[in-house]
């Protein structure tokens, strides 16, 4: 059995400094970690990523010792980054250029040449760490937009290795992608992989257009929504693999006695009103202000809803040092205050705004309590909150209002979600009213379909399907010697183009 290496921006552990100034590490819970760790255990694998601590704060030998204490059969391989590198590579190019462009918000892009050079250098460093862990018989799975150039660097050193890539965020429209001077370098970097995975058919189609228009390479559509691309003497396969959650774990948690007790406490605190729920990371892609505007419109148009419904909006802190995020936080707080000032009565608060992280038990209780979940991002790769809500609705009495820009809409729209265009304030308000007044039979039928869809496409099936296809791609490749020679020759021929595109 060939070994597997997983490469992501962060390792699946969180390092924290204790009161004695020493660091310790604990595993970070999450669907990706839960899905991949059993595979890595079975294959004798490694996980390569940044440990979350700047190199100035903890030397490499100490980091290695801390990680060794929590490895538990999966080798954790740290990539060292300084504070300035994190600021330029992650906060700079990744989140000030790639993130807004890939979410269709090019007016928010900040493309800085220094940040781009740091992004290239950090991707090279990740690639070197991966190459040191990989031989030509092995497989690597690279994750997300922070590491778009790693595959190209690895391919030069390990031409016969099998490389997969999965993009967790949306792939942009061509017009938004070319707003980045580095567009061709990005597409070239992705084409270094053997299998490229996207969340939705929408993203896959946009990638096909980018390959055709920017690289002038033919893209062939094959069975089961897959694309075949011949480049640099290799065959690249691209497909859509919608990520899921650990649905069984969320259902089990929501049905627990502990969560039932939390639900009862929340009900006493909120009162008897119907509950609308939003759970989002602080981000301008999440449609927070648009959602609040739709709720305000609901209260304007339907005065009978006043004192009968409450919006509970959880906002998880994120990137607060970035100016755009700090401005969004301030504007959201102003708007919440304005709406409450306009509609509140002595016995009723129309919006309850929680600005903090919640643990899984607290979330499950809110998911159980909520009559309607409002998951209305402007654009999102998938949005797992929608799936967590459905999995937690063990009594099948809730309704899901889902933004069409969420990747989850491809799966959950046909299954029973009420799909809206978040910027259409009037239509979204009308849909929220429909969700609140829907009869019990329809609510149960819709939620039953949603829960089935979420359970059948959970995170384990996602990981299994991607890795199984990656194995098939490996098996179909030419014999190792021929493949290595062809890839090496192709990479050498493509290198001048890559350098030109990297200069924009």
In short:
This protein is an alpha/beta fold. It has 19 helices and 17 strands.
Task: State the major sheet.
Answer: 9 strands, mixed
The CATH superfamily of the largest domain turns out to be Glycogen Phosphorylase B
- Unreliable segments of 5+ consecutive residues: 481-504
Indicate the proportion of strand residues. 15-25%
Strands of the widest sheet, in order across it, are: 5-4-1-6-7-8-11-10-9
- CATH architecture descriptor text of the largest domain: 3-Layer(aba) Sandwich
Number of domains: 2
The radius of gyration over CA amounts to 23 Å
Q: Total strand count, please?
A: 17
Overall mean pLDDT: 91
Q: Span from first to last CA?
A: 41 Å
Helix content: 40-55%
**CATH fold naming of the largest domain:** Rossmann fold
* Bulk shape: globular
Which CATH class of the largest domain? Alpha Beta
Structural features, described:
By secondary structure, the protein is α/β, with parallel strands linked by helices. It has 2 domains: 4-243 and 460-484, Glycogen Phosphorylase B (Rossmann fold, 3-Layer(aba) Sandwich), CATH 3.40.50; 247-456, Glycogen Phosphorylase B (Rossmann fold, 3-Layer(aba) Sandwich), CATH 3.40.50.2000. The protein is 50% helix and 18% strand. The protein contains 19 helices and 17 strands. The chain has helices at residues 31-43, 60-68, 83-102, 113-132, 150-157, 174-177, 183-190, 201-215, 247-254, 257-270, 288-301, 323-343, 360-369, 384-392, 409-415, 425-437, 440-456, 459-476, 480-502; strands at residues 4-10, 13-17, 23-27, 46-50, 75-78, 139-143, 162-166, 195-198, 219-222, 226-231, 234-240, 274-281, 309-316, 351-355, 372-375, 399-403, 418-420. The protein has a 9-stranded mixed beta sheet, sandwiched between helices. Helix 3 packs across helix 4 (113-132) and helix 4 (113-132) crosses helix 5 (150-157). The longest helix has 23 residues, at 480-502. The protein is globular, with a radius of gyration of 23 Å. It starts with a strand and ends with a helix. The model is unreliable at 481-504 (pLDDT under 50).
